[in-house]
Amino acid sequence: MFDSISGKLNVDPWLVSALKEDVSSEDVTTNSVVREAKRGCVDLICKQDGVICGLYVFQRVFELLDENVWFEMYAKDGDKATSGQLLMTVTGDMKALLIGERTALNYLQRMSGIATYTNEIVTLLEGSKIRLLDTRKTTPNNRVFEKYAVKIGGGCNHRYNLSDGVLLKDNHIGAAGSVAKAVEMAKEYAPFVRKIEVEVENMDMVKEAVEAGADIIMLDNMTHEEMAEAVAYINGRAEIECSGNVTKENIAKLTNLGVNYISSGALTHSAPILDISLKHLREV
After folding, report:
1. What CA–CA distance (Å, rounded) separates 116 from 10?
2. What angle do CA 82, 84, 86 make, to 5 degrees?
3. Is 248 labeled as catalytic in the residue annotation?
4. What's the rounded Cα separation, in Å, for the pair 51 and 219?
């Protein structure tokens, strides 16, 4: 994904912005201890078991600072690494290695954390046909990285942004006046190739969404009993997604409902980082 032309077009501006955030004029510390040009080598070490994600982004940070940087790879995105494992060695201009360290690690740690957390939840869904989805609850300007990490962890992406699909939520329904009216207006306005999803909170809304011809019905923050009743009523007339405070601690309770999808904002807003470090910088 990121090693394509489109990937660079979408990724590089954010990486440059992050580097500018960290270096407003100069890296005073690095310029203090590295007074002349020299090449260095440093090890990328995983300090915690988890799924690795973001290695290309990590590399690209250093490529933007040093066009002659060189990487020796010992892992790839999607690998399950163990604590103490050497993932990569990076060789390049020593100033570039020091300046880019924090920015590169911030991306790699965050993306690997999301991939790891997603994979833990996907594992809990094994044996079912349920697909795990992310949401738009992402860090501003980091959606491309975070949604990629969900995929590497074994999850699936819901719509990428507001241009990507029709999802009629409570306030859209309020603006339209009713579920039925919102679906009618969406069908009239949106291209016919777009599926129409409706978020519902009770059985009355479920019935209205089915009768209006919604393609997907999202059961949002409903009790287990309410969701079971809703699934039985829908009875295959629409695909079903359930959502609302889904985490790895409670997702197992949802696997017997018969839904097609489970979406979880926690994949991107609550995943802890994976501990990864650059160590043993030496001159070469």
Report:
1. 24
2. 90
3. no
4. 30
